[in-house]
């Protein structure tokens, strides 16, 4: 199990990746752009978002930090743009943590299995 910091940006994620890479002498992982994702008719992506970073991560001082640009149709508030991602192969453990965190927070997205059946996603504001 691990806890990973996830930082969201409003259009300047590529620049942030360059900065973190230089500052920590860390290699950038594969950077996936929003325009690289398969088209989804339920989620129309504006042309202006196609070159924004959908997902990237970097190993920094032995830990992982994940990075992404929030698409233009979603909001980002600087100061509230950092999340902690809990990764575990033990589903019961994840459900227990999520349930406890829900008691003191606001659920944004319930814990649910992803399409690839290897990950569970949920989002809380605490």
The ordered H/E elements are EHEEEEHEE
Might you state the CATH topology name of the largest domain? Signal recognition particle alu RNA binding heterodimer, srp9/1
The largest sheet has its strands arranged as: 2-3-4-1-5
Name of the CATH first level of the largest domain: Alpha Beta
Report how far the terminal alpha carbons are from each other: 21 Å
User: What is the CATH architecture descriptor of the largest domain?
Assistant: 2-Layer Sandwich
Poorly predicted regions: none
Instruction: Give me the Rg, rounded.
Output: 15 Å
- What's the main sheet like? 5 strands, mixed
Question: Which class best fits the helix and strand makeup?
Answer: alpha+beta
Q: What is the number of E strands?
A: 7
Mean pLDDT: 81
Q: How much beta, percentage-wise?
A: 35-45%
Count structural domains: 2
Number of helices: 2
The outline comes out as globular
Helical content class? 10-25%
């Amino acid at each position: 199990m691990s806890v990973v910091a996830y930082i969201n940006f409003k259009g300047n994620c590529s620049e942030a990746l360059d900065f973190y890479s230089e500052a920590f002498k860390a290699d950038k992982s594969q950077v996936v752009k929003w325009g690289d994702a398969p088209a989804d008719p339920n989620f129309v992506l504006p042309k202006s978002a196609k070159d924004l970073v959908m997902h990237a991560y970097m190993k920094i001082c032995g830990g992982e930090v994940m990075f992404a640009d929030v698409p233009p149709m979603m909001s980002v508030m600087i100061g509230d743009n950092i999340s902690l991602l809990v990764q575990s192969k033990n589903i019961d453990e994840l459900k227990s943590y999520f349930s406890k965190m829900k008691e003191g927070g606001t659920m944004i997205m319930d814990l649910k299995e992803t399409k690839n059946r290897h990950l569970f996603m949920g989002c809380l504001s605490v």
